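Box 3.1. Reading complex inputs
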Amino acid sequence: MPHQRPPHRDRRGETLTGAEIIWESLAQEGVDIVFGYPGGAIMPAYDALVGAPVRHVLVRHEQGAAHMADGYARASGRVGVAVATSGPGATNLVTGIATAMLDSIPIVCITGQVTSTLIGTDAFQETDITGVTLPITKHNYLVTRVEDIAPTIKEAFYVARSGRPGPVVVDITKDAQQAKTVFAWDDAPVKMRGYRPDHSPGPASIDEAVRLIDGAQRPMVLAGHGIVAAGAEDELRQIVEKADLPVALTLLGLGGFPASHPQSLGMMGMHGEAWVNTAIQEADLLVALGMRFDDRVTGHLDNYARGAKKIHVELDPAEINKVVKVDVPLVGDVREILRALIPRVSQRQRTAWRAHIDELKGHSAVRDIQTLPDEGRLHAAHVIHDLWRLTGGNALVVTDVGQHQMWEAQYYRHDHPRKLVTSGGLGTMGFALPAAIGARFAMPDEEVWVVVGDGGFQMTACELSTIAQEGVKIHVAIINNGFLGMVRQWQEFFYGGRYVATPMKSPDFVKLAEAHGLEGLRVRQRSEIEGAVAHARAAVGTVVIDFRVEQEDSVYPMVAAGSPLGEMIRRPAQGRKHNPIYETGEDEE
Amino acid sequence: MATALCTFVVHVEDRPGVLDRVASLFRRRAFNIDSLNVGRTHEPGVSRMTIVAAADRDTALRITANLRKLVNVLDVQEITDKPSVTRTLALLKIDVAPERRAEAMQLAEVFRARVVDVSPSALMLEITGTQDKIDGLVSVLRPFGITEMVQTGVVAMTRGADGTALRDANPTPGGDVPAA
Ligand SMILES: Cc1ncc(C[n+]2csc(CCOP(=O)(O)OP(=O)(O)O)c2C)c(N)n1
């Protein structure tokens, strides 16, 4: 599947059409693949793809194109690119753009627009896409003149990847694509008068942060996506090892600190580990690194970590004191700031605090799954746990949204960054399959697993066809519980068990895979997991596995929305019989 | 934290859609705009906005931080606590019979409002000043019968040499971030 990038001839100085300039500009930015779908207003650009230095992947729905660009960016750290036509093509990108916006993912979306003289006339397939995407992009552009195409694309990439990254839309009229001009590309760094993404904290704040860290008895590091985005994994490790700080992670921070590290506590928040949330509530200092205190991690704000001083290291000044009041804000690149802090903080051993957290943890690092009965039935937690074990924890896992996403976060332990791709902020169902395709193209040597619910899978299942056409190999694990599971769980807990619009009938996923020319397998028992996974890994092409799991299982523990972080709903005790999790040995106390 | 009217001087690139971006930011983040004025400056390509918003201290700082994130925004300065000149201009039309015209004009004089148009039964007044002053004029003219009124948003400039001119770089925050 790894493709050869066509040899690129630098065409600067040649007179080209706007359409050709689009591809040449992308090539100058180092882009070798785009995900898109053609249509009237972008046809000149598609016509110019003949001989262009960029590979195009035809998606089945433009939402898929945006998610593929997003998955490409999350897996690789490079800017992903999606292409669509005007009107419905552009509006189909919207969910993907909003997804990238809330998780600060750098993507550039190129859309065709009607001819400039027709703008404002409700022309065929005219949508004001810069207007529509204004609140869900970091920035966007309408380009009506051919001379502006190259400099705008250059600026768009700069804006997308610099500072706090985000999606950028470049809407290019059909006449600008058709007109000709000399292709000029300025290699100099972009300079923009009003946009300066670089900040650095004052020395006084660094002093204060060092004083708080040195003086704390019960400190915790809360590490988020910013660690991964800044590539600050090594620095994080150095500071927490030196100052002996336990680390809790957000969903998007998973992998930013190795799950197997003795100081790693795991995920915090709504479905975080109980001991993590308890420790946060008991802490006297929180050092928040590249995270934004989302309501899914804080629980009820009035009760959040009331005894703790707070240091907030964050790139975006607008995040400071947005929801949680902090004592020391450090605005800037988290890696730079950690580098400034590391030599200054004292070497410490916080034996008592660590011992206390260990006590909260209990004897096993796997709590919820211990109480699952082994009646030969299939629990989603088992599937994920086995997947982790069988792939040696090294797969690049792309999840959708729902219960399976939380189980993945709990039971697939990530030791490396950019190995979990998931929609956190927007929680977009339908994300996984297309995002995995993007991730696969970005990282052709990785083993990519999609973990998806039966609901979310059906939202973008059409992209199986893209997989088949492109001949890419992805493993798809459908965690099929016959329900919109996460909503069903809320109905069970908070809506009197009334299962309204959550029981879901699905097609035969094995046959669906086969209809796409892919392989399908069904797994009903835990004993079958290993064989199915091994088969999928050995297969040449994509294998879709339909895991028929317990229908009414719930994710535990859970902090109900709006409850204090320390108040968790726990799995009801069930007689502890033989527990299959111990078969693996790893979790033995 | 107490909510008060806060004043922001915002220099922006004179590009299509800039007003939209600023207004959309306030709407999306649920910041309340009390008044917004935008117009050209002496520098080609640069417009200046004066925005008055009801906000507590934290929110005011976040308004500044969020405005700075907009790519077309060149500079943001909050001048709420700085000595400054703030002005609004209003035009008012009152329905006044010739025999009461002198009386109305006398009242207008007290407020330093100017008569800018006179017709047999109507008088148009122009007044520049703070909102308080304009409100004062409105209340004394109301008995005459105000038929029409229009006013601009507030424009503001700080006093003295330490001004609100466009600084060429959005200063990097350092300590200049929302404080607890
Ligand atoms: C596009 C979209 N629509 C609705 C939701 C609300 N939602 C969150 S989780 C969920 C259920 C997901 O069901 P499924 O895909 O089967 O996964 P499961 O929870 O069963 O693992 C729903 C409907 C959402 N997150 N995204």
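In summary: Chain B touches chain A at residues 12-13, 16-17, 20-21, 24, 28, 58, 61-62, 65-66, 68-75, 168-170, 172-180 (CB under 8 Å).
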